């Protein structure tokens, strides 16, 4: 067994176990502090790696506004949790929902970035640096904001018909999303290694194949049904109200693992680096681990609203 593959198995299992324990506790307790801590930590580490990618292109992405805005977006999502103000939760959540917090944070972040860029570098790479920093705010901040919102999502009235409605549907969906994209990613990796013949995107990621992409559907659907069954068995509740919904969820979100990896591969190839960082042996950096979730987050939240 190659050293890299062994490291992937060891560290992937360790990280997966920690995520499973923390997010399962969140789903059971319906408090979601674990998702908040994990989201803030992941955003900070990923922002540093993102800036490193831009520096390799002589683009001066501003780390301070990127981190502040991205972390602020994670906290903004968590403030929708009624636990913050249980006695007046309804009114507080309505006021928060009516406030343009997300565009306000992004607008202030762009203004801060423009001022910092002009003061430090004048007009040198001004458009590229401002664009890179703003893209980082969207790529990391908005995606993790939506992941946090997904964890807090309640079932719509009557969603479970005559059955009792669990208060933690969002927590279950976040865990199912992790299983969906990671099982799809694992199936694509091993399926591509075993049967890969036709390259999917040779200019961006020569190792990706259409055969591996096909296997991602199998792994994603299997992971979705597996974790849904585990919730039914362990908690007596399901994040879905029909047998067909996990199938749709897996078929749509599974390929997001491949898409997320391709997006990050394009960033790394443009920066002429193999990995986004060196923090996670066998994987590279935190961006290399979270790329699938970052791209899947908006689609997952949309599916959670319509399924």
Short description:
The protein has 307 residues and is mainly α. The protein contains eleven helices and two strands, in the order H-H-H-H-H-H-H-E-E-H-H-H-H.
Report on the biggest sheet. 2 strands, antiparallel
| Alpha-beta classification | mainly alpha
Number of strands: 2
Oligomer: single chain
> Whole-number radius of gyration?
20 Å
What is the element string, with H for helices and E for strands? HHHHHHHEEHHHH
End-to-end separation: 41 Å
Shape: globular
Uncertain ranges: none
Mean pLDDT figure: 83
Q: How many domain units?
A: 2
Strand order across the largest sheet: 1-2
Tally of helical runs: 11
Beta strand %: under 5%
Question: Percent range for helical residues?
Answer: over 70%
Describe the protein in words.
This protein is mainly alpha-helical and 307 residues long. The chain has two domains: 170 residues, no CATH class; 122 residues, no CATH class. Helix content is 73%, strand content 3%. The protein has eleven helices and two strands. Strands 1-2 form a two-stranded antiparallel sheet. A hairpin with a 3-residue loop joins strand 1 and strand 2. The chain is globular and about 60 Å long. It starts with a helix and ends with a helix.
């Amino acid at each position: 067994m190659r050293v890299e593959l062994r490291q992937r198995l060891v560290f992937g299992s360790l990280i997966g176990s920690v995520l499973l324990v923390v997010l399962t506790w969140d789903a059971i307790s319906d408090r979601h502090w674990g998702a908040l801590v994990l989201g803030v930590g992941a955003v900070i580490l990923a922002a540093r790696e993102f800036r490193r990618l831009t520096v390799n292109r002589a683009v001066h992405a501003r780390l301070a506004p990127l981190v502040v805005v991205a972390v602020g977006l994670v906290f903004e999502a968590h403030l929708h949790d009624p636990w913050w103000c249980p006695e007046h939760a309804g009114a507080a959540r309505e006021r928060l929902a009516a406030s343009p917090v997300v565009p306000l944070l992004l607008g202030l972040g762009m203004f801060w970035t423009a001022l910092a860029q002009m003061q430090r570098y004048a007009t040198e790479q001004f458009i590229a640096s401002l664009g890179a920093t703003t893209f980082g705010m969207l790529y990391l901040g908005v995606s993790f904001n939506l992941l946090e919102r997904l964890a807090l999502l309640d079932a719509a009235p009557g969603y479970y018909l005559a059955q009792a409605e669990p208060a933690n549907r969002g927590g279950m969906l976040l865990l199912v999303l992790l299983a969906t994209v990671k099982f799809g990613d694992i199936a694509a990796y091993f399926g591509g290694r075993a049967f890969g013949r036709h390259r999917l995107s040779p200019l961006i990621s020569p190792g990706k194949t259409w055969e591996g992409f096909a296997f991602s559907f199998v792994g994603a659907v299997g992971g979705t049904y597996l974790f849904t069954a585990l919730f039914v068995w362990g908690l007596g509740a399901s994040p879905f109200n029909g047998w067909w919904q996990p199938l749709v969820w897996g078929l749509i979100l599974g390929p997001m693992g491949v898409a997320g990896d391709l997006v990050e591969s394009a960033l790394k190839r443009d920066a002429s680096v193999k990995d986004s960082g060196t923090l996670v042996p066998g994987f590279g950096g935190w961006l290399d681990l979270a790329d699938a979730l970052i791209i899947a987050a908006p689609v997952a939240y949309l599916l959670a609203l319509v399924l």
